[in-house]
Write a structure and sequence with these properties.
elongated, 26% strand, 3-stranded antiparallel beta sheet, 45% helix, 7 strands, alpha+beta
């Protein structure tokens, strides 16, 4: 092979190397753009999950307060309805405020909120939008695109109550294996365990 032919071969392969390098660079930038978008979506989903759980936990605290009031009121049957989740607290904005606060802690804003029922249980649906954007990338528009996500959290009673029990008398029941007895005529707040022991909170699937 002559020196001239070697130089010709080199001249032919150089554009190929440039072309392959450009493709690899574009692929790397595209992968980075998708990774940015995935990271923003994950952040939004984490914020939505946290906000929905916070709303449900705030409502669970309201449930406990309503239960205590119902036991103290002496109205037959009322307190058992609160205990088994058949009654839902009207709420005073506490669950929504809790959702707003948790969304803000995750650099997001709660842009949708509603009370819901899932399988007959009290739940809260929250939608969030991130305050941050996906960021600059080779995909047009990502520099102004905010990620969105939604989640629903549900409150479920942990206690097994016999419907035949007389709520005006002393009632014994079990909450996840823990025995509890309540006598409306001789009730002390210390007779009740924490709200988390009476009601579970989890994300709806």
């Amino acid at each position: 092979m002559t020196p001239g032919s070697i130089r010709a071969d080199r001249g032919q392969t150089l554009p190929i190397y440039i072309w392959l390098t450009a493709i690899l660079l574009f692929a790397a930038l595209a992968f980075f753009a998708f990774a940015q978008a995935a990271s923003a979506r994950n952040g939004a989903q984490s914020a939505a999950d946290a906000a929905a759980l916070a709303a449900a936990q705030a409502a669970r605290d309201d449930l406990l307060e309503e239960l205590v009031e119902a036991i103290g009121s002496g109205e037959d049957g009322e307190w058992l309805d609160w205990l088994d989740g058949a009654e839902f607290p009207a709420g005073d904005g506490g669950p929504e405020a809790a959702a707003d606060a948790l969304a803000a802690e995750n650099d997001s804003e709660a842009t949708g909120f509603s009370r819901d029922q899932v399988g007959g249980y009290l739940g809260y649906w929250v939608q969030v939008t991130t305050n941050y954007t996906v960021g600059d990338s080779i995909i047009p528009g990502t520099e102004s695109q905010h990620a969105k996500a939604e989640a629903t959290a549900v409150i479920k009673p942990r206690c097994d109550v016999d419907p035949s029990d007389d709520p005006a008398a002393s009632v014994a029941f079990s909450c996840d294996g823990e025995s509890i007895e309540i006598d409306p005529d001789d009730f002390d707040l210390d007779d009740l365990p924490d709200a988390a022991d009476l009601f579970s909170v989890h994300l709806a699937k």
